[in-house]
Structure formats: C-alpha cells, structure tokens
C-alpha cells in the first residue's frame, strides 16, 4: 500500500502526525484509522463476494482489476497464438505498393512493374518523398480537406 513512500517521507509524516495530534492522542488516532481501513477492506471484500455469487459459477475467477481496459487487453494478448499470424501478415503487406496501385486505379492507369530498387512504379510519383517547395511568388495548392 505504501510501497512508493521513502524513509524520509515516512519520518516526515510521523513528525507531522505528532505535531498535529500530539503524543497523547496519537495512539488512539492510529487505532481509529486502522479500524476504519479494516472496515473498508471488509466491506469491499464482501461486496466483491456478493457480486461473484450473483454472477454465477462461471465467473468465480473474475477479478475486478480486469475491468481496467489495459489489464484486460494484456491478459487477452499474453497467450494468444493468433498474434504470430497477424505479425506475419503485417510483414508481408507492402503499403507503398498498395497505395500506388490505388492511385493507378483512381487515375485509370495500367500498373507498371516496380523498379529494381523497390521504389515506386515508373511514371508514378512517390507520395512519401519530400516535395519541392513552390517559388515564393506561387501560392501553395489549396487542400479542401485540410480546412
């Protein structure tokens, strides 16, 4: 519970508690706080058990930490063998080639064979290369989707 509190911080909390409550009332305050924490834990445990009993026997291993989306996804991804197939499929997919094929289809061009170095097809501009800046007198092209 207090694993992230260092020794110096713990000493500062004790000194602050002694100054605020005084040495004569401090043991009673500690007992009251520990009793309150114990009651909250008991209430929480009984609520969890009630929910598990209402859900039925198929949810006996249900953990409330699984309701956190990150924890749920991490647990589901740990033993999943389909991820290997997905990674293989992802490695075989060439986005640049697919984009060029779509651009060719949109412009009604025949698909030319790819160049030897793996760059874009002949006659097809490489959309990922940096475009030259227009002269200072020219206005940049208007992009209606960007506005």
TrEMBL record:
Q: Which Pfam families match?
A: TatA_B_E
Write out the annotated subcellular location: Cell membrane; Membrane
Tell me which InterPro entries the record gives. Answer: TatA/B/E (IPR003369), TatB (IPR018448)
MF terms from GO for this chain are: protein transmembrane transporter activity
Q: What residue intervals traverse the membrane?
A: 6-22
* The entry's keywords: Cell membrane, Membrane, Protein transport, Translocation, Transmembrane, Transmembrane helix, Transport
A single GO BP: protein transport by the Tat complex
Bias (Basic and acidic residues) ranges: 127-147
The membrane topology noted for this protein in its Swiss-Prot or TrEMBL record is: Single-pass membrane protein
Q: Give the record's GO CC terms.
A: TAT protein transport complex
Question: Biased-composition ranges for Low complexity?
Answer: 112-122
| Cell membrane among keywords | yes
For this chain, the family text in UniProt reads: Belongs to the TatB family.
Query: What binding partners and quaternary form does the record give?
Result: The Tat system comprises two distinct complexes: a TatABC complex, containing multiple copies of TatA, TatB and TatC subunits, and a separate TatA complex, containing only TatA subunits. Substrates initially bind to the TatABC complex, which probably triggers association of the separate TatA complex to form the active translocon.
Give the protein's biological function. Answer: Part of the twin-arginine translocation (Tat) system that transports large folded proteins containing a characteristic twin-arginine motif in their signal peptide across membranes. Together with TatC, TatB is part of a receptor directly interacting with Tat signal peptides. TatB may form an oligomeric binding site that transiently accommodates folded Tat precursor proteins before their translocation.
Q: What is this protein identified as?
A: Sec-independent protein translocase protein TatB
Which organism is this entry from? Streptomyces gardneri
Instruction: Quote the gene name from the UniProt entry.
Output: tatB
């Amino acid at each position: 519970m207090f694993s992230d509190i260092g020794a110096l911080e713990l000493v500062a909390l004790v000194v602050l508690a002694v100054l605020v409550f005084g040495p004569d009332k401090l043991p009673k305050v500690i007992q009251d706080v520990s009793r309150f924490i114990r009651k909250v834990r008991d209430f929480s445990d009984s609520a969890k058990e009630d929910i598990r009993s209402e859900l039925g026997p198929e949810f006996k291993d249900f953990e409330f930490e699984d309701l956190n989306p990150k924890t749920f996804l991490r647990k589901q991804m740990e033993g999943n063998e389909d991820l290997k197939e997905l990674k293989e499929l992802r490695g075989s997919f060439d986005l640049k080639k697919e984009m060029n094929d779509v651009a060719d289809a949109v412009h009604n061009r025949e698909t030319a064979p790819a160049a030897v170095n793996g760059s874009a097809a002949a006659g097809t501009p490489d959309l990922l290369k940096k475009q030259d800046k227009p002269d200072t007198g020219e206005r940049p092209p208007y992009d209606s989707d960007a506005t």
